[in-house]
Amino acid sequence: MNDKNLPSYLDQSEAVKARFDRINQRETILEVRGLGKRYRSPQGETEALRGIDFSVRRREFVCVIGPSGCGKSTLIRILAGLEDHTSGDVLLDGKPVSGPGQDRGMVFQGYSLFPWLTVKKNVMFGPQMNGRGHDEAERDARTWLELVGLEKFADAYPHQLSGGMRQRVAIARALVNQPRILLMDEPFGALDAQTRSKMQSHLIDIWKNIDVTVLFITHDLDEAIYLADRILVLKAHPGEVQEVIEVPVPRPRSPGQFNTPEFMATKARLEELIHPAPEPLPEDEQAVKPHLIRFTNVNDNVE
Amino acid sequence: MSLVANLTGTDSETRKRTLLGIGSFLLPLLVWCLVSYVPFIWHPKVEVTVPGGVDYFQTGMLVDKSQFDDETAYAKEQHLALPAGKPANPIYLPAPHEVAQAFYTGFAKQPAQKDAPWLHESLWHSIQIIFWGFLISSIIGVPLGILAGTYSTFARLSEPFIEYFRYLPAPAFGALAVAILGIYDGPKIAIIVIGTLFQQVLIIANTTRKLEATIIEAARTLGTRNLKLLTKVVVPGILPDLYRDQRILLGWAWTYLIVAELIGTSSGITFYITQQARYQHFDNVYAAIMIIGIIGFGTDLILARFGRRLFPWDRAQDRR
Ligand SMILES: Nc1ncnc2c1ncn2[C@@H]1O[C@H](COP(=O)(O)OP(=O)(O)OP(=O)(O)O)[C@@H](O)[C@H]1O
Ligand SMILES: [Mg+2]
What we know:
Distance between the termini of chain A: 28 Å
Bound molecules: adenosine-5'-triphosphate, magnesium ion
Number of strands of chain B: 3
Oligomer: heterodimer
Strand content of chain A: 15-25%
Radius of gyration of chain B: 27 Å
CATH topology of the largest domain in chain B: MetI-like fold
Helix content of chain B: over 70%
């Protein structure tokens, strides 16, 4: 690639700069300070996260990216309250979080819908758990199903839906609780390329129309740049923040922007951070290096 | 969506499956018919039709083939009237039509021995024993299993003992059960409970543990807590599998029945079987044994069909 002709990913147009100024004036929703996490297991201790610092403003879209095993899932699970942290603080609206709560919605990669409930009942589940009556919950569920375009499938069971549709239900189910922040752990990772890009646009539409802040984990660089205001780049062993990138691609976003210089400059920077020049593999990955034996006739070449 | 179509199968596939299912019953029946009706297959005995000059032979008597041959040779030597006979199977292998007849007479005719129970009376008694045994076991075992599968502390507290107790053979408690519960139905029900309960707790605990962790996590992030997590997520989440486990366990309960019924005063289908065997009415014995199978298998088929209605979201049953 002709990297030399690209602008710096740090260059921002006037419009983008103004947008970041506006974002920075909004109140902080989520603040993470010196967050650390150690897993203790019979095999020894793993330091999954160390000294993570960042904050998210209201209605900001933040992506977290990093190599496999850098602690992305650990981070989001701590934020969701599904996992305890070993050091540091997590503040939501200035108050420390403890345990899961309806102020933080979560969307998992594996959908994890309740298979025994219909689509509508899945969405009604949250409101009902939080003490809302059946009728009110049903009304809310209908509104949200309409918003994700699934009102026709209200009475279907999750197993009757495609992957993309299931993930829409999961999003509706999380948003119906009106969380302050929506946490998403590689939500589109299991979808095919076409569905994935549809879901990305759809998510942006939802985010534009509702008062919600999104923290989105992905390992797809294009996805991160396309969606995010800011990208939190993590490095592995232990998981630490490498850089927080303000995405210079202007909004509104469209798939046509994938070839713009800002986009490519940002992507080049992410590549540099995530796939640095050859570096010895970490021990645990060396251990699983396959040793290939030839099972075919020597003359039976495929290449 | 094409995957779903493949899983549920087309019409012709269903027909093929039904035919194979019927075939799996016809095949052993065919073997039985061959052995019973084709004279040169097996038939190790000879049924005497004409005693001839052999003094201890009687019409209808079953003798070993070699013995019959010896006696015939001897009669020939002594110039006595020759005995005649036809190949026969031992008395413990009645032919299919005899057993079919026994089915009918078991339900329709007064038993040959006075004060012996009718087949259906014996059967009904056995079914009641199974019902109460399995019900009591489930009332205790299902909640314990779910608790052990959900809370690891509870599992660690209960499972080692249950694992140990599981190895104690239920019949070993027979004498004890009689001493405590008397000689009638009490100890029989107790044996079924002892035989089923401990397996039940462990199996259901395992099923509960297999519930996807992210389902519970998703529920927690939606604000579900404590008891509601158990009643609104864990229980409905495992229900189809729990139902399948219960069907299998019910089958096991039947296997304990025979032992249970020998304890105290012998009763039920076991009493019927031993009684009929004593009088060498093996056709009745076979009919009684088969009817246990028919009831067990029939209940399971009905429960399976019922389960499909009950759990329309359950994917596991499509794969069978
Ligand atoms: N329950 C656990 N017990 C012990 N170690 C764990 C546990 N969960 C995660 N780890 C370790 O913590 C590190 C971070 O894991 P995590 O799943 O957060 O990574 P990730 O960035 O989400 O990876 P991926 O991109 O593959 O999803 C890994 O080294 C992993 O082995
Ligand atoms: Mg992960």
